[in-house]
Write a structure and sequence with these properties.
Low-confidence stretches: none
Distance between the termini: 28 Å
Strand content: 5-15%
Oligomer: single chain
Mean pLDDT: 84
Shape: elongated
Helix content: 25-40%
CATH topology of the largest domain: Peroxisomal Thiolase, Chain A, domain 1
Number of domains: 2
Order of helices and strands: HEEHEEHHH
Length: 144
């Protein structure tokens, strides 16, 4: 949680805090010629929205290494208002995720999805957007 709070504060304050406890860089880490660097002093981290550039949104990774061997990595990206509308208007390919415990279950799931799509596409209302169907199939699944 401390790492996540640190990233959120850095985004809000538009400042990169220095990396703690770095006194001397490891000589085996070669960062020359890469876009990476170790932040040893506080540095500005302005939002692309405020600078008026076409830069990508600011992103940061947060790692957590548990004592019992559980590891987690979280990527945090700044919110940029208006991007969701631009993305929603731009049609393109979408990933339709289908999964099941066995081949028979997968076939049954695909059959039910095809039936549902045929039903809603032949209805009088507006058909669902492909990106909405793809999103629901990726995040709206039951874990069983």
């Amino acid at each position: 949680m401390a790492g996540l709070i640190k990233v959120l504060l850095a985004l809000r304050e538009e400042q990169l805090p220095p990396t703690l406890h770095v006194r001397e860089l490891n000589p085996y880490i070669r960062l020359e010629g890469t876009p990476f660097h170790i932040v040893t002093t506080r540095q500005p981290w302005p939002s692309a929205l405020k600078t008026g550039t076409a830069a990508r949104p600011r992103r940061a990774g947060v790692n957590s290494f548990g004592f019992g061997g559980v590891n987690a990595h979280l990527i945090v990206e700044e919110f940029q208002p208006g991007l969701e509308a631009a993305c929603a208007e731009a049609p393109g390919p979408e990933l339709i995720a289908l999964s099941a415990r066995d081949p028979e279950g997968l076939r049954e799931y695909a059959r039910r999805l095809a039936q549902w799509l045929a039903k809603v596409m032949s209805g009088s209302g507006a058909p669902p957007r492909l990106r909405d169907v793809a999103f629901t199939l990726q995040v709206g699944r039951d874990a069983r």
